[in-house]
Description:
Layout: E1 5-7, H1 12-18, H2 27-35, E2 49-52, H3 58-66, E3 73-76, H4 77-81, E4 94-96, H5 101-109, H6 116-119, H7 128-133, H8 136-148, E5 163-165, H9 168-178, E6 181-184, E7 194-197, H10 204-217, E8 220-224, E9 227-239, E10 242-253, E11 259-264, H11 272-295, H12 298-301, E12 304-315, E13 318-328, H13 333-343, E14 350-356, H14 362-369, E15 374-376, E16 379-386, E17 395-401
Parallel strand pairs: 1-2, 1-4, 2-3
Antiparallel strand pairs: 5-8, 6-7, 6-8, 9-10, 9-12, 10-11, 11-14, 12-13, 14-17, 15-16, 16-17
Helix pairs in contact: 8-11
Amino acid sequence: MIPNLHIFNPSCETAIANGTVSYIPNNILLTFEHNLSYLPSIFANNNDLVLMPEYEELSHIELLHSYNFPVPGQILQNDFFEEHQKIILEINNYKLWGYAPNWIHRLKKNKTVNSPKFEASFFYNWSENHKQIYSRTTAKGILENIIENQSNPIYITKSKIASVFTSVEQIEAFLINYKQIVLKEPWSSSGRGILMLRKSNLNSSITQRIKGILKQQNYIMAEAMLDKKLDLALHFKITNGKVEYFGDTYFSTNTNGQYQANFINRLPDMSSEIKLFLESNIKVLQKDLLRALAQSEIPKYYDGFLGVDVMIVKENDKLVFQPCVEINLRNNMGTIALHLQKLIHPEAKGTFNIVFNPKQTFEAIYKQINRETVVDNKQILRGTLALISPKGKRFGAYISLD
């Protein structure tokens, strides 16, 4: 079988915002990208390939294989992009973590490899339409569609929908009205590009950052800070213009809204009130999101997995959904979590974690939290398992099963 080539490029949204084919992520993003390059192996086939900055440690791949995890082959970036290296002549399709003009340009330049599916794909000829569907204004449109077409009072009120601003003065006026607000870059993801303003004035450093965003991206999104009770995501797959529901996941974030971990085969701790609201209304949410996505421009220009981040919040002493916080038009950590649930033991429960500590390596962190595994029928039931080799990494990924 002709292999697919999986490419981990989590900097795709910043590359889209930058817009140039020569874009290179900053050092921290590049380190994240390189350290976790083998992560797409979780949803690859054994005959596929993963593009790597350097080979993953063989002993770690053998460990993953012992738990029946997929072990696709690896191909080094230097070998793949050096035209004199005839490493491989044909790829079924390029499976990027997220599509962006810089990577599309690199792949199109590699004339030694033939990939008819990529050439026939939505993304081969990147356009302004592609860029626009990745903007947070697309999520805003989906949110407006759901709230305006649904009389069932399970969603936030219209006043909580984000506004678009083009100046610092507009944001200052908005802040006076709402006291605590959230600012969001139009093109960013996974809690990055977010500013939580809990004070009713802008200091000089925040003002400078806002000006930088406005200069680079022309506008900024602002919304009232909500009383969040729970984070979740609904996942979909678009194939040939058809939107299908794929599953839901629950995750945790830090105080700045940045992703930390996904729950696997279990719900996070929650009150009975929240659990009842969730169980009573999740099917309605799924249906409304599916309809709104199908009616949007997204299926015209996108193919593949996407995740919609959702929050349960308290508004006027009542639980409601913020049904479309942001849309991740790419593979995401929730996609990984859903695939992990198929690989681990059916009775296993725990978390999938992404870690980074500027003062510690992943190897040092993993030694502190590592627990012996319990295996049943070659599937991990309890314990910890690093999904990438800890050696030499600053960022890490692992599962911890109770």
